Amino acid sequence: MRIVLLGAPGAGKGTQCKNIVTRHDLLHLSSGDILRQERAEGTELGKQAQSYMDSGGLVPDEIIIGMMVKAIEKAPASGFVLDGFPRTVNQAAELDKALAATGLKIDAVLNLEIDDELVASRMTGRRSCPKCGAVYHVENLKPKTEGVCDHDGTELVQRPDDSLEVVAHRLETYHQQTEPLVDYYKSNGTVYDFDAGQDVDEVKASIFEKLETLGNACSADAVSNQEA
Ligand code: AP5
To answer: CB–CB of 178/88 below 8 Å?
Structure first.
């Protein structure tokens, strides 16, 4: 399956992607994580992206599209989940073109809906592991030992773009440039909405239920295509 996760900053895209890929053996491709990795390695791409990320704006399409298409080309046949990409209608159209060139398409778009008021507390309380990328929250999703990653014992950090001021700009950017993608994908009938204001496990259960149904439909299609 090839899945896109849409949602405002803090809707829980990264958190839910980790659950989905573990259960369905898919590759998690987070544009934000790839950009942060480029920055950590000091690459030219990372340097170009830095000021846009720190201010809460979008990195230009010319940089992002090539970077993500390259990452998608390396995905296994089982499929992938895109987290944070596409983020503009132009990015979505270019993604569709790149997939169509190899006879592929996006099978499902999962849209995590959340109120702006909830986003601020989620972002300022988020802590992540700089080594393995695991995401925690100081109240909602605590690590076993405060400030330390459960998986590798690394000290957790706060993302520089999670300050209230930058989060406000990220939300504005989301509403202006990314929200129109919901209509873009709805015109293809592939969007499934989820209430991302619920607990992590409740959101996870709703997503798993939907993916189960979609997975069964895909298997039935594959069988009837083989029989035809
Ligand atoms: P990116 O890293 O993609 O950030 P984002 O989209 O703003 O999303 P986040 O990672 O902040 O939030 P999330 O939805 O993954 O939430 P999470 O699961 O962590 O992008 C960063 C920057 O890179 C952008 O601003 C831009 O500059 C650039 N960029 C990236 N992609 C780009 C593109 N395609 N084009 C141009 N520029 C691009 O959860 C948040 C917190 O809430 C966590 O602490 C978590 O534990 C907690 N939480 C999650 N779910 C729940 C729940 N159900 N209940 C309670 N707490 C919860």
So the answer is: yes
pLDDT at 206: 97
Catalytic residue among 2, 18, 122, 170: 170
pLDDT by residue (tens digit) across 197-206?
999 999 999 9
Pairwise pLDDT comparison (3 vs 220), residue with the higher score: 3
Identify the residues whose C-beta falls under 6 Å from ligand 1.
7, 9-15, 31-32, 35, 52-53, 56-59, 64, 84-85, 87, 91, 122, 125-126, 135-137, 140-141, 161, 170, 196, 198-200, 203
- Closest-lying ligand 1 atom to the alpha carbon of residue 86: 34
Q: To the nearest 10°, report the CA torsion of 8, 11, 1, 108.
A: -60
- Res 218: pLDDT: 63
C-alpha to C-alpha distance for 32 and 46, rounded to whole angstroms:
11
Q: Render pLDDT for 34-44 as a digit per residue (tens, 0 to 9).
A: 999 999 999 99
d(CA 32, CA 11): 14
CB atoms within 10 A of CB 221: 10
Q: Which helix (H) or strand (E) holds 194?
A: strand 191-195
* Two structure tokens written together for 49: 């992206």
Q: What is the pLDDT of residue 222?
A: 54
CA 153 – ligand 1 centroid, Å: 23
